[in-house]
Design a protein that fits this description.
By secondary structure, the chain is an alpha+beta fold. The chain is extended. The protein has one domain: Bira Bifunctional Protein, Domain 2 (BirA Bifunctional Protein, domain 2). The strands form 2 sheets. The chain has a 4-stranded antiparallel β-sheet. Helices cover 23% and strands 18% of the residues. It is built from 4 helices and 6 strands. It has helices at residues 76-85, 90-104, 118-125, 156-162, and strands spanning 9-12, 18-21, 26-29, 56-61, 64-71, 112-116.
Length: 174
């Protein structure tokens, strides 16, 4: 449907800030708990979670997502409100993220990021049918690397050094 010589890009914005989870009967951060609410949602993102929008974005080329990111929260009170809206108490937030909230008090600038899938861009521009056609060391459907034979066994000394213990799983169990 898309002519071979065309590369059409678009930005997708206005993502929901939260997503509802039927199992736990609560909202959780759709992107991550550091994503800034949209300017329009700033006053109500913690009281009207179902309507809150995020300052998040995806870049799409010819209908395929190439990457996504967001503008991060940079104000201590907004970050504290976000944690409370997600069911994280002020005490828990201080224990886990106190350093971040404290740093925001010193004036962190607005900031954001994006993670791009360069391999996807190359796949589209090369008109390849699969991502595996354009990456140097493609994995199998079982996440195995046939070239390096990964994953491979790890010796007991390495496991002990990392504090990892393996246990045998009975055959047929998952």
């Amino acid at each position: 449907m898309i002519p071979a010589e065309r590369f059409d890009f678009l930005w997708v914005t206005n993502f929901p800030l939260y997503e509802w989870d039927d199992e736990t009967q609560r909202y959780f951060a759709r992107h991550h708990p550091f994503t800034s609410p949209s300017r329009e949602s700033l006053d109500t993102f913690d009281s009207d979670q179902g309507s809150a929008l995020a300052r998040a974005y995806d870049v799409v080329m010819n209908g395929l997502e190439l990457g996504g990111g967001s503008i991060r929260i940079n104000l201590p009170e907004v970050q504290s409100r976000m944690f409370r809206a997600l069911g994280i108490s002020d005490e828990e937030a201080k224990g886990r993220f106190g350093f971040l909230i404290e740093a925001f008090r010193y004036g962190a600038p607005p900031h954001g990021g994006i993670a791009l899938g360069l391999d996807r861009m190359v796949m589209l521009m090369a008109r390849a049918d699969s991502l595996r056609d354009v990456i140097a060391f493609p994995k199998t459907a079982r996440a195995q690397d046939l070239m390096s034979e990964a994953p491979s066994p790890v010796d007991d000394r390495q496991l002990a050094e990392l504090g990892i213990a393996l246990r045998k799983v009975p055959h047929g169990s998952s």
